[in-house]
Amino acid sequence: MRLAALRHVYEQPGPFATVYLEGRSPAEDAREQTRLRWRELRERLHSQGAAESALEALDDALAAALSGEEQANGRILVANEDGVTLHARWDAALGTGDGAVWQQLPDLGSYVREHARAIRELVVTASQKGATVRQLVIAEQHEPREVRADDIEGSAYEQVHKPRGQGESHGRIQRRADEAASQNAKDVVERLRKISSNFQPHALVLAGETQGRQAIRAELPDELGDILSETDRGGDGAKESDSALTDELLAIAERTSEHNASQRSEQWQAALAHELAAQGAQSVARAAEMGAVETLLLEPGREATREAFLLKTCSDTDAAVDLVATGTELDAGVGAILRYPVNF
Hints:
Blueprint: H1 7-10, E1 16-21, H2 30-47, H3 52-65, E2 75-80, E3 83-89, E4 99-103, H4 109-117, E5 119-126, E6 130-138, E7 145-153, H5 157-161, H6 170-199, E8 203-208, H7 210-219, H8 222-225, E9 228-230, H9 239-273, E10 277-279, H10 281-289, E11 293-298, H11 307-315, E12 320-323, E13 334-338
Parallel strand pairs: 5-8, 8-9, 11-12
Antiparallel strand pairs: 1-2, 1-4, 2-3, 5-6, 6-7, 10-13, 11-13
Helix pairs in contact: 2-3, 6-7, 10-11
């Protein structure tokens, strides 16, 4: 995650109320339950000295969201005396619970950790005629969230269905069908390149018909082949099969997230050996104030010392933020990969 995406929040004057509402399963009394949860959080903020104008702005923002399927979504809201500065989806790990705090800087640590853990999967359900391509975001312990779905029909669609020349030999008909399937695979991959360029997936998952998967796999460029996982689950429309595919997608996301964190820890160790890394709140803060931080590193379940300040300062210079593997044990829970060496 590039922290510049949060710069508009940090540019507003503090103090801020930061509210986290955990996602819950939809229920008939969901609206009332959310209202009661917010009332408790509101009282907590009031006792901390939150400005009434900020609380009223949060009242209005939540009132507009208290309906229907929105109750299944967790959310984060940030407000100051002038109004709401951030209202976004927050896919917290189940059981995280609600939270609210009034302080000089917004408390965005949990929000950026969720973003860093979330895995973008490009799921291709293949056939010989084309493919359905789904862009999914999978947060820890959550069902996949579909961002977009595209049905891609290959240019040789009719040839696959109706091979011309019924009097031709079986071999020639089969050859025409294979050529059509190959052309359709090329068409699918060409679209995948464009979709991938915008979506920037962590994983490409190939499902569906065996022949369709084989044809698409053969056409994949290296950058997509390197993140490829293949499964024979799902794609036939059966409920049990789709459930099995969802389980597979969750497993792939978990493996990918663990791999990414381990890789980031290795990158930090390598940078440390070349004097292009820092750890500890004081050293990282100094590097951040100099604009030297390329990637701010946090631990998954541990709040860093001066975390809110570090996130704000790094947002000014478009640093990224990411997570290291559990057990890395950064000094004060924070480290950084640097753009250039800094004398501490």
